[in-house]
Amino acid sequence: MFAHNKRLQYTVRVSEPNPALANLMLEQFGGPQGELAAAMRYFTQAVSEDDPGRKDMLMDIATEELSHLEVIGHIVAMLNKGSKGRLAEAVDSEAEMYKAITGPGNDSHITQVLYGGGTPLVNSAGVPWTAAYIDSITEPTADLRSNIAAEARAKIVYERLIALTDDPGVKEALGFLMTREVAHQKSFEKALYAIEPNFPPGKMAADPRFASVYYNMSQGPGEMRGPWNQGADWDFVSDREKQMAVDGGSGEAEVALPAGDIDVLKQMAMRTQSNPASSPRTGAELGMSMQSAAGGTMGGSSGNAMGEANVASKGGKLDDTGLGNPMGSKKSLKK
After folding, report:
1. Closest by alpha carbon to 117, among 106, 130, 133?
2. Alpha-carbon distance 302 to 307, whole Å?
3. pTM of this structure
């Protein structure tokens, strides 16, 4: 069960309203790297987790992320306080109100008009939150790595938000939330390394023929060697021939089909085959010919000084348009 304490995990102190900043803060409220996404990611993992230690950790962190959602939500609400009332009571003239919510550097017009200066579950661009942000796969050696990366991305977003404001109270609260991302990364890393072995993820072993091969697929200026592709751990392959059909087969796709399917596929291939010897006239060519005829050109070999329209048709007569000219003809159109 969940129980709620009305006191925030961290005190929110906002110096003055700032709807533009509030809109940016929504990235950590309803965005892909935000607190709701983190809470739902860890909560669903906790529910499915069989290891008692990891289950406890995931539930603790999921619940804390809901507390962080509450903190960032209150930051958004406080930053929107002034504009929320002015918008609701329409105390400004239409021009002043429009200027206030669409001024330079202020992208809050979507959340101001649609949500009245509230705290909607959207990102800073107004895109609604979606469960598609949750990429758990119910394999702890994969999910814990994904969690580490998610906390890292969230820390970077907080760094960028901190750099965008000079409000000391907002900076302080964001700094706390950023720091908690680091703490969670440490917990997830410890939990990952407590699984022995934890690499490669999952149960099945990698094929030793390919597990330590580095294929140099992008060749040319700018190639670099480093610990990711050189040393005793790697077999570096640049030879193009050795990059193809590495299994020793033909390198072509094959399938064994029943005789009935083969006959049907042949029938389909005959029906849909293209004629390489054909030269069909397309709608685009007809349109270009008609446009040229209507607009004409000035002077030169393709028109005269009076701007009469000429048509040079490479595909024969345009029987269905009435603009028929012999192939390659440059006769002026009759009017």
Report:
1. 106
2. 10
3. 0.76
Q: pLDDT tens, 130-146?
A: 999 999 999 999 999 99
The predicted pLDDT at position 277 comes to 92
Q: 155 and 178 in contact (C-beta within 8 Å)?
A: yes
Altogether, the residues listed in the chain come to a count of: 335
- CA separation for the pair 312, 287 (Å, rounded): 13
Nearest-angstrom CA–CA distance, 21 and 80: 9
Q: Give the Cα separation of 220 and 97 in Å (integer).
A: 56
d(CA 292, CA 308): 10
**Radius of gyration, alpha carbons of the chain:** 32
Q: Are 21 and 106 in contact (CB under 8 A)?
A: no
Number of Cβ within a 10 Å radius of residue 132 = 8
Locus of tokens 């390919």: 210
Q: Which runs of consecutive H residues, i.e. helices, occur in 116-213?
A: 140-164, 168-193
Judge whether residue 292 has pLDDT over 90: no
**Mean pLDDT of the 53-80 span:** 96
What DSSP element (H or E) covers 48? helix 35-48
Closest of 274, 276, 277, 279 to residue 316, by C-alpha? 279
